[in-house]
Backbone:
């Protein structure tokens, strides 16, 4: 009797993911049995999240700002209202969020972090990359941002001012990168294709 | 009483590994943990601040050794008990077999 | 992190004031441009004043609306204090004695005090 138990233990307990998966399953079962959540509700939350929260949203916003000077001004003045023009919302999450959009210029580079956890505009940038949540990034980008940006392959000349924004739950920051040279004739959709999630966080030029 | 999550300006975590694979979740349980937390906060079972507080109360060695969603799971279990939604004895034992009558796994190999 | 919503959900209440707001609505103790000092806080619970800014001086650059103080939310104060949240900019040189960048942090009003009056000195 102890043999199958042990062999099951060796197979499953040796793998952290299956231990964690069991704990998660148990918690979900208990909460469902208590009438607190339903499996269908969780499915719906995940479906909507994965279908709607993506960096292509932020890229669209940036491309519009590049081609439409009026929109750019509105975006920098009131991010929430401006992204709503494109059908995006910072609501719908668990609490209302202020969207503050900051713009890179030839003399200023912005970079975003959340030192205390991993706050970030999920609706516009999609799920955050692992590095954004890492202690290495959170601890060092406020202290030595130029070094950290070098680790991403982004070299900033000394004359460019670096502004780090330590985000909190109530305010989420997004960066408008500089429009690359030589893109004057490009259509808005093609411009959006140039913008990366790193660019929207400030760890890449675009 | 500053806790381990408050890492801004600390040294020693090494260079940033900028690798990314574009995946939102690396296992199904991570996605379910994410959804559970969203549902519970929407239901006002607890607040986002309470959730953060629960993560921040993990012991430092535990915090640093845990993956991102592992921290979330720990916090969720703790809050579910604290808010009276589940009984502590009903939760899956960390590293053990499913709870129930009879002998449990000894918890050997319980890595942190 | 943890705003777990999609991009197309129904909008919640918008923040009451934004970074573009002119001047200071009543009730805000500090104004953009004002130098403030972060109190030497160290509570045993969740707070939003990171350790690296405590005790340091910074400049208010923006007002980011009025929000419940997280410290009150987690300690069960009913109702939690509703306070202005400021974006406060710190120079790296002030924080760490080196560096040419700045760091801007969102801080609740209760975390801040005015810059003490300077003595006239000799």
Residues:
């Amino acid at each position: 009797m102890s043999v199958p138990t042990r062999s099951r233990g060796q197979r499953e307990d040796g793998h952290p993911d299956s231990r964690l998966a069991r704990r998660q399953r148990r918690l979900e079962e208990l909460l469902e049995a208590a009438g607190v959540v339903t499996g269908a509700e969780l499915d719906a939350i995940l479906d909507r999240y994965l279908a709607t929260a993506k960096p292509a949203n932020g890229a669209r916003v940036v491309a519009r700002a590049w081609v439409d000077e009026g929109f750019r001004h509105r975006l920098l003045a009131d991010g929430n209202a401006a992204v709503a023009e494109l059908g995006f919302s910072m609501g719908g999450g668990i609490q209302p969020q202020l969207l503050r959009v900051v713009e890179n210029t030839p003399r200023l580079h912005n970079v975003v972090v959340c030192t205390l956890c991993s706050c970030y505009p999920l609706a516009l940038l999609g799920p955050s990359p692992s590095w954004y949540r890492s202690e290495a990034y959170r601890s060092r980008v406020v202290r030595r941002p130029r070094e950290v940006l070098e680790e991403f392959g982004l070299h900033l000349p000394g004359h460019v001012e670096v502004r780090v924004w330590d985000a909190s739950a109530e305010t989420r920051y997004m960066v408008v990168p500089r429009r690359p040279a030589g893109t004057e004739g490009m259509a808005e959709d093609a411009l959006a294709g140039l913008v990366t999630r790193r660019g929207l966080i400030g760890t890449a030029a675009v | 009483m500053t806790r381990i999550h408050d890492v801004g300006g600390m040294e020693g975590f090494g260079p940033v590994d900028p690798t990314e694979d574009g995946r939102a979740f690396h296992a199904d349980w991570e996605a379910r943990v994410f959804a559970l937390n969203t549902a519970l906060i929407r239901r006002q079972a607890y607040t986002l601040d309470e959730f953060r507080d629960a993560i921040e109360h993990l012991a430092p060695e535990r915090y640093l050794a845990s993956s991102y969603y592992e921290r979330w799971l720990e916090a969720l279990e703790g809050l579910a008990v604290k808010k009276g939604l589940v009984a502590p004895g009903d939760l899956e034992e960390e590293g053990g077999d499913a709870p129930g009558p009879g002998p449990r796994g000894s918890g050997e190999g319980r890595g942190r | 992190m943890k705003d777990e919503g999609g991009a197309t959900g129904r909008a919640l209440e918008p923040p009451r004031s934004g970074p573009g707001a002119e001047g200071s609505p009543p009730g805000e103790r500090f104004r953009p441009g004002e130098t403030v000092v972060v109190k030497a806080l160290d509570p045993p619970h969740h707070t939003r004043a990171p350790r690296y800014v405590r005790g340091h001086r910074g400049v208010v650059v923006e007002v980011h609306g009025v929000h419940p103080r997280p410290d009150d939310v987690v300690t069960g104060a009913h109702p939690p204090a509703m306070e202005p949240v400021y974006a406060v900019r710190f120079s790296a040189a002030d924080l760490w004695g080196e560096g040419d960048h700045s760091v801007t942090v969102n801080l609740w009003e209760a975390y801040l005090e005015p810059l003490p009056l300077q003595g006239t000195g000799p």
Summary: Chain A has two domains: 2-37, 53-201.
